[in-house]
Amino acid sequence: MSASRSIQAGEPVALGIAPAHDGTDAQALPVFAAEARVLGLPASTWPRILAPLIIGMLALGLWEFAVRANGIPSYVLPGPLLIGQTLVADWGTLSGSLWITLRITFMALAAAVIVGVTLAVLFTQSKWLEMSLLPYAVILQVTPIVAIAPLIIIWAGDINLSLLICAWIVAFFPILSNTILGLNSADHNLINLFQLYGATRWQTLRYLKLPAALPYFLAGLKISGGLALIGAVVAEFVAGTGGSASGLAYRILESGYQLKIPRVFAALIMISVSGIAIFLVTSWISHLALRRWHESALKREN
Predict the structure, then answer these.
(1) In terms of Cα–Cα distance, which of 99, 163, 177, 170 is closest to 134?
(2) The total number of structural domains that make up the chain
(3) Using CA atoms, how far apart are residues 101 and 109, in angstroms rounded to an integer?
(4) Looking at residue 283, which CATH number applies to its domain?
(5) Can you tell me whether residue 38 is helix, strand or coil?
(6) How many CA atoms lie within 13 A of 63 on its CB side?
(7) For helices 210-239 and 159-184, what crossing angle results, to 10°?
(8) Which of 23, 39, 64, 166 makes an SS bond possible with 235, Cβ 3.0 to 4.6 Å?
(9) pTM above 0.85, yes or no
(10) Contacts of 251 (CB under 8 A, 6+ apart)
């Protein structure tokens, strides 16, 4: 029996030692160095987490110091500690308003995905349809929502429906334009190959164009997620809804009229954190969908 043995496929190999193999692809495996992990996360991830946290803590500390040192009244500029206390004290009211705003946001985003992707597919299947309708989508996108929101509120009749329409108008165009770009970016050589083998338009769309458009659609989704939240908040400002079913925008207006500025900041923080959460969730969805095959999500060694 030989003193040395062959390294089996999949067997861990010490870094720097060339494994013996029989020349086949199954045996010629790459050798990677295992990255150290701290609290369950790769060591390279922690600088990206700690750096912004440290900067944020320093900024909050300077803010609190400036407010206290200069004796700035809370109705002009409250400190971070007072804002945090207000957020805890008014959580019951603000959280209910946050849920109303987020409900409009998610409904508008879902409608933007359905309408945007459907129109994108129709436009790429019919150039006449694209030339006829796409300019109107552009006009709808570039028109300021604050200018047409009063008309939408009057025409819709229902306040929740009008808020949904306003948020949808802001959110749907990035999905439409990005998906159209993705569908038109499919490799023309592959399209010719599909035609050569007699593939139908549906088969070409399903197996070639839609997978090619997925990264573009997901990029538009990340943009539209934040825009849907912005559209919902702006529509609430214009509508000026009141009563028990009121979103965060109304709470901001209400608190501003009453000079409860710490409450205004607390509501703004909730909106900002919600926007960040939406972006992180859509980025996570994009990572899950692309991590195994697309260049933008593959992990590289160099």
Answers:
(1) 177
(2) 1
(3) 12
(4) 1.10.3720.10
(5) strand
(6) 14
(7) 160
(8) 166
(9) no
(10) 93, 94, 97, 263, 267
